[in-house]
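Per reviewer request, we include the raw input and output of the structure prediction for the construct analysed in the revised manuscript.
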Amino acid sequence: HTFRIAPYGGVGLTLFLIEYDTTRPEAADAQKLIAETTEAATKAGGEVIETHIAPDINRAYVVVEHDRENGLRAALVAARLPEHDLAQVRLVGATLEEVKANKTTPGFLVEWDFPEGLDMDTYLARKKEKAPLYAKVPEVQFRRTYVREDMIKCLCLYDAPDEDAVRRAREVVETPVDRLTRLQPGQ
């Protein structure tokens, strides 16, 4: 497995993760919510990179490339989208060009809530050291990770035959699973 830390997009562009709690009545229709978020982000000059609905954990995720957090936030508010979490993220394990070119939805999403005190440099060094160990679980393919710059958590995307295989892969790289869900295909 090749370990890569993807640079941000073009000049002045950054990646942002928008996360919705779909148990809230105003956010319950995740498909509609993603469509409205995509429209608002695009009108504000952003580009939606990928979207995921995680029904098992009642979450919808939208990754957007945009030049300003405030501009993106203002567009979401102007579109009257429900309460959400917006955070700058770093892409690890794939390049942005690879993600844009491959529009297939990975099978599983793992969230890991970082322990307090973990910094980005330590996380990235650990990720680079452990990534080759995924080869011990060949039925699982690590796709990419979005690491929140505020070091609250990361979202890791995998292809695997089932949840148990994903859990085995996480054990091999000695990384916890706080939430694991099968993603809806066709996102």
